[in-house]
Amino acid sequence: MERRDSSKNFRESLKKLLPGILDWYIIKQFLGTFVFSLVLILGIAVIFDFSEKIDDFIQKQAPLKAIIFDYYLNFIPYFATLFAPMFVFISVIFFTSRMAVNTEIIAMLNSGMSFRRLLLPYFMSAAFIALAAFMLQNYVLPHSNIARLDFEEKYYRSSDFRKMNVSSVHRQVYPNVYIYMEQYNKISQSGRNFSMEKFDDNGRLESKMTANMIRWDSTTNKWGAWWYYIRETDSIGERLSSGRRIDTVLNVGPEDFTRSPEFVYTMTRRELIDYIDVLESQGSDEIKLYLNEKHRRYASPFAFFILTLIGVSLSSRKIKGGIGMQIGLGLVLTFSYILFMQFASQFSLKGDLEPALAMWIPNIIYTFIAMGVYYSAPK
């Protein structure tokens, strides 16, 4: 008898968790408002972006087909994914406030539905959007960003961006091994006034090679140093050598000297992980940028759940000022979250903050804010 009662209670509990009419109503309102706000704001963003860049498009004779298909068709998903948490928050605030004004929230709670149970359709909708954003960031956007960035470089960036010479190239190519070039030319794939220094674990200089020029040999896939001079130091003493040409064993290619920071956005999840392994083997300081992006892609989907919880908790009651007040508060919180993420990223790149911690700190802090707002919401 007890087993039958427990089985019955389990079925009843499970039935309560299954989406009902009210759940589908909230999901429909959530996703419908999200799509509407997304289309509206994207339309405004495209108009402003086009008005800003139209002079460059005309001056550089960008084809209409390229503007539409190479740029804006790829700009829209990039912009949408970047600000998707804001769109979610605004959507939740807007339609939940409207439901609260119409006393629909009170009616649901008075019917026996708990506030915690009310959150289920919201989190189901947020999970759908978070999964879509994660897939876009890791598998779709990297390919579309290649076309978008190529278009920008060709038809929008200034000539300085596309200049053929890169000055003062500093790079770590192995642990404790650093190279420097006074100037690198993209066309000839050669560098002027090259030097490479190797240090021991205590920071003492072990060897230094200088050369008038370093050039990439595409037949051997190696860098050749011309008119070189090498000085090696150890416990025995100092050894000097020089010559006309010598092959180096640098584990970098010509493209590594010309990559912009935006290159990270053109990498799929697998490519990003593999490239981080390469940078790790080199001991490169550039690894922070790519670690930031890796952890950002994992952390950002959780923002949808956090901001959804804050949005529902804030807008499920009537307050003075109405929907406008709640939307304004929502925008402030959303923009503060985005700014917090940017500040944390910069602290990681230019300071000692670990990339993983930097990308997760905003989620951790706003989770506490969400829990505080949740416990103050009407039950």
Brief summary of the model shown:
The chain contains 10 helices and 6 strands. The chain is α+β, with helices and mostly antiparallel strands. The protein has a 6-stranded antiparallel beta sheet.
Calculate Rg over CA atoms: 28 Å
Total DSSP E strands: 6
- State the end-to-end distance: 35 Å
Shape field? elongated
Please outline the major beta sheet: 6 strands, antiparallel
Q: Could you characterize what this model shows?
A:
By secondary structure, the chain is an alpha+beta fold. It folds into two domains: 231 residues, no CATH class; 66 residues, no CATH class. The chain contains ten helices and six strands. A six-stranded antiparallel beta sheet has the order 1-2-3-4-5-6. α6 crosses α8 and α9 runs antiparallel to α10. The longest helix has 41 residues. The relative contact order is 0.11.
Which terms summarize this structure?
alpha+beta, six-stranded antiparallel beta sheet, 10 helices, 61% helix
